[in-house]
Amino acid sequence: MGENFILLLFVMLPIVLLIFTRQFFRQVRPQMSGQRIRSLVFGNTLVLLLLLSVLTLGGEVYFRFFYDSTDSFGLCKTTQRWFARHFERNATGFRDSANYMPTVEPGKRRVSFFGDSITAAHGIADVEDRFANIIRATNPNLEIHVLAQCGLDTGKQLELVHFLPESGYETDIVVLVYFLNDISDITPEWQEIGKRLYESPSPGFLVSNSYLFDTINARLRMAREPGVSDYYSFVRDAYEGSVWDRQKDRLTNFRDTVAANGGTFYVVTFPFLHALGDDYAYRDIHKKLNSLWLDLDVPHLDLLRVFEGMDAEDLVVSSRDAHPNESAHALAAREISTFLVEQIESEPGSE
Q1: TM segments (predicted)?
Q2: DSSP assignment of 325-348, as one string?
Q3: Is the dihedral of CA 70, 76, 81, 84 positive or negative?
């Protein structure tokens, strides 16, 4: 209701201003021949307001009906509308074009991908362009499940892997798709950033109901927030001290839980694609993760070596969204598929 009212207001405003401007130049201005400066100010002000109202209407129509992309943090109304358009969930509540049965399909190996927005494919309009769906299409002998949700950090992922056996879900191969910010839920810095981003006071009726002004407001908020402009800089500090010790314990718990339920556990790590380059600031974190999985005897595919040397702008959704785009998902699918096949073929008793 509010959105339609704002759109109607933006449609009517240029019409009203056009009528006033026309009346001014036809009837009022000729009577102000002795007030040249005042006439000039009034006339120019009306013309400026008319132009601004037309631009406002154009911006509102564009962002409401034509703009179809996302931002990294899901702050914009345009992102919420994108999710409504493209994020279709299956019967179990996960984004996918296929439904999941609790028991493994006879004659197939089940691969269950656990992850966050990267695994769910935030920013990818066609779910079939997601790496997991590409793997499904190219490996008909694998039963692919994507147990991923946006914002699912390690804590929530761990809750899910504990819950599934109780629900009757059979695990076979479990792949944790790890992203460096999965540690965020136990990082105090991110908790403060999240509060400032997502718990800010209501911006008012206009911003809440206008796609144009909501987009402007969200982009200004992200630009002013140091934790956003210096994207996830806090992550570098999180992989030190007690926070990293706690994260290691949680990841070990994840491995042990999968094993206790008869599953095989693998890990795939995505780098921060937006930060790729010779000065990639998170390289030491990858080394720590590699060392951890080696100590835990968990097969690990680090995709940093795949994406390194490539231009970040060719791999992310947009300048506003640092999630992997279709090209990055295709590259990841190829590497993960090869990794899975190699691991399955190396299992004892495999032919």
Answers
A1: 6-25, 46-67
A2: -HHHHHHHHHHHHHHHHHHHHTST
A3: positive
**Alpha-carbon span 271 to 177, nearest angstrom:** 11
d(CA 199, CA 59): 27
pTM for this predicted structure: 0.90
Q: What is the C-alpha to C-alpha distance for residues 328 and 306, in angstroms, rounded to an integer?
A: 10
Are 94 and 87 a contacting pair, CB within 8 Å? no
Helix (H, G, I), strand (E, B) or coil at 321: strand
β-sheet bridge partners, residue 177: 268
How confident is the prediction along the chain (351 residues), in pLDDT tens digits per residue?
799 999 999 999 999 999 999 998 888 767 776 677 787 888 889 999 999 999 999 999 999 999 999 998 888 999 999 999 999 999 999 999 999 999 999 999 999 999 999 999 999 999 999 999 999 999 999 999 999 999 999 999 999 999 999 999 999 999 999 999 999 999 887 777 777 777 777 889 999 999 999 999 999 888 877 666 665 667 888 999 999 999 999 999 999 999 999 999 999 999 999 999 888 999 999 999 999 999 999 999 999 999 999 999 999 999 999 999 999 999 999 999 999 999 999 887 665
Question: Whole-angstrom Cα distance, residue 53 to residue 61?
Answer: 12
DSSP letter, residue 146: E
Q: What distance in Å separates the CA atoms of residue 251 and residue 243, rounded to the nearest whole number?
A: 12
Spatial separation of the C-alpha atoms in residues 73 and 122, rounded to whole Å: 10
Are the C-beta atoms of residues 193 and 225 closer than 8 Å to each other? yes
The structure tokens listed for 254 are 């994840």
Do residues 148 and 115 lie in contact, with contact meaning Cβ atoms separated by under 8 Å? yes
How many angstroms separate the CA atoms of 177 and 270, rounded?
Answer: 7
Structure tokens at 78: 């345009």
Per DSSP, 66 falls in state I
